[in-house]
Amino acid sequence: MNLLDGKRCADSLIADIAKQVSRHVDAGLRKPHMTVVLVGHHAPSESYVKSKVTTCTLSGFESNLIRLPETVTEKELLWLIQQINADASTDGVIVQLPLPKQINAQRVINAIAPEKDIDGFHPANFGRMALGQKAFRPATAYGICKLLQFYQVPVAGKHCVVIGRSNIVGKPISIMLSNDFDIGNATVTLTHIETPRELLLEETRRADIVIVAVGIPGFVTPDMVKDGVTLIDVGINRLENGKIVGDVDFPAVAPKCEWITPVPGGVGRMTVAALMINTLMAYQNNFELA
Ligand code: NAD
User: Fold this and answer.
1) One MF term from GO for this chain (predicted)?
2) At what angle do helices 6-26 and 267-286 cross, to 10 degrees?
């Protein structure tokens, strides 16, 4: 069993980003700048945002966090996004999800200028990504690809099963790994809550790579995978005792795996690193450096 260490990979990517930023700054340009919008006080969101802001500093970026009350209206949030879109000093913006009930998240995502959409959730970016064109790729899925690349895990020609079809993880990773990308060319099966259990097991048991993003602790058990599988655990689940676990029964399944991601220290770290890559790309596009 080998660990796909997201911290090690993310640290290496961020060190490389910081070097590129210092070259740009030495050449007289301003630093890249990320704006983060956080609505309310959702505890996991607070921790994700903190990690993103800290990683901006490590990457040599400027960042600012705009906090809005839980009661903010959709109209007020859309107005703020328009201001950020028009602000030339911001290269990339993220609106931390989830948003309160009174706000339609898709409408908010659609309002972000595609050239500042470093999460890669805007239909223009998602569509370009799906078509194999240059785009901001959804950060968690992109982070998974970077992790597989870093550890030189074979992907092309492999059979990959994705469990979960969310717009932010399952759907984009299934498209990216099946596309003709540098990390891609796999044969991908996308499964979800309506996939019959028997069919799910048939697929996962013959998969070379399993990616799980369902949000259920211990969902993947040893009987579901073959020996030598590569297992990517996207889940972040907070147990009642405060412990963070993924969607895989790690102690039981890890001995069967060739490669496996830990939680924490796996995909979560890579999501943040991928956001930094996207922000640097937004900045380089802005200054026509890329
Ligand atoms: P989600 O919570 O929006 O949806 C869950 C998905 O799981 C759905 O598509 C559903 O069809 C599928 N599902 C549920 N039960 C299933 C079953 N029995 N069999 C097959 N499929 C089933 O998904 P999400 O937003 O991708 O989040 C999933 C998990 O990943 C959560 O724990 C979340 O916290 C975590 N997450 C982690 C990161 C990261 O950076 N590591 C990023 C995003 C989400």
Assistant:
1) methenyltetrahydrofolate cyclohydrolase activity
2) 20
Predicted model pTM = 0.97
125 occurs within a structural domain: no
**109, 163: one domain:** no
Instruction: Classify residue 222 by burial, with Cβ atoms within 10 Å: 0-12, 13-18, 19+.
Output: middle
Q: Are 190 and 165 in contact (CB under 8 A)?
A: yes
**Which residue in 91, 116, 117, 119 is the catalytic one?**
119
What pLDDT, on a 0 to 100 scale, did the predictor assign at position 84? 98
214 part of a folded domain: yes
pLDDT tens-place string over residues 70-82? 999 999 999 999 9
Q: How large is the ipTM?
A: 0.99
Would residue 87 show up in a list of annotated catalytic residues for this protein?
Answer: no
**What pLDDT, on a 0 to 100 scale, did the predictor assign at position 18?**
98
Catalytic residue among 96, 116, 171, 233: 96
